[in-house]
Amino acid sequence: MHHCTADIWSDDVEDLPLLDNLKNKEKNIAFDIGTRSVSVIRFLIETLADLPLSVTTRIYDKHDVPLLLCQLVNVSPWTRTDDKGRLFKYVDSKWNQIAASDRHVVTVTEGQVWLALRHLLLDERCQTHYEIDACRRSHLLKLQCHLSEPVLDQISPLAELKYFLSRLEIMDPSSTRATDSKKPFILEVVTDYRSSLADQPRKYFKKLAKNQLEVFDSLLRDGGAVDLAKDMAAAYETLDQVDAESAKCGNCGEVAKRFCSRCKLEYYCGR
């Protein structure tokens, strides 16, 4: 998720050139996908007990998700201030101006990040899979300044996270390390064709994109785009006709306009 600024995430895009308008929309879509990905990550974290052990290792060790979430809290990409000093927050997939009295209201995305962090750091797997060294410790302790009273009032489970961070601040860093005897050795079996399948689209993407660009250019020049749109609209009308013809009474075989309210499949023409 990228940090947002007023010039990048401007909603006034009508006067922008076409290319800049498309780039602006692309960035907005990418940002929206990022906010939704936070929710997916949180649900994955809360179901780690039901997932393979390799998932836990990837979250804690390979991708260091706790530190990534910590960085999100510090950057707060769901909040921005424009040139006039007005505060905006990303709510319901759009930027909304926030009144000064509501500036401490936690957004859904921010709440997802906090709950995911709490679950990761307080989970018993953290002691086994996550070594809190000096670097990680310094980043995690930065969360304390964000755990204000308004935030704790809205998300009460974060009080446990605040207590954990308070203990981490006074603890010896060596005592928070996952020793080699505790860390499990995981041998993950990855089939050979997985990487080859993942690389195939990359090889042919540019070629396919170039071919499609030529197709659309020819359609626009020859007016074929309009004909194509008409054909697609006619296809939907044909489907409606096919569906209407298939609606026949299950008893007599005549065309029926009513269907069973229970199974939603069988049609009938009368009682």
TrEMBL record:
InterPro entries (alphabetical): ZMYND10 (IPR052298)
Gene Ontology terms: cellular component: centriolar satellite; cytoplasm
Protein origin, superkingdom: Eukaryota
GO biological process assignments: inner dynein arm assembly; motile cilium assembly; outer dynein arm assembly
Ranges in a coiled coil: none
PANTHER family, alphabetized: ZINC FINGER MYND DOMAIN CONTAINING PROTEIN 10 (PTHR13244), ZINC FINGER MYND DOMAIN-CONTAINING PROTEIN 10 (PTHR13244:SF7)
Name of the protein in question: Uncharacterized protein
Organism, as annotated: Laodelphax striatellus
High-level lineage: Eukaryota, Metazoa, Ecdysozoa, Arthropoda, Hexapoda
